[in-house]
Amino acid sequence: MRTLLIAGLILAGSHVVAQDAEPLSKKAPAKFQVKLETSKGTVIIQVTRDWSPVGADRIHELVNAGFYDDCRFFRVIKNFMAQVGINGDPKVHAKWKDKTIKDDIRKKSNKRGFVSFAKSSAPDSRSTQFFISYKDNAYLDSYGFSPFGEVVEGMDVVDKLYNGYGDGAPNGNGPPQFRVVREGNVYLKEKYPNLDFIKKATIVVDKPKVE
Question: What residues make up the domain containing 141?
Answer without folding.
Answer: 28-205
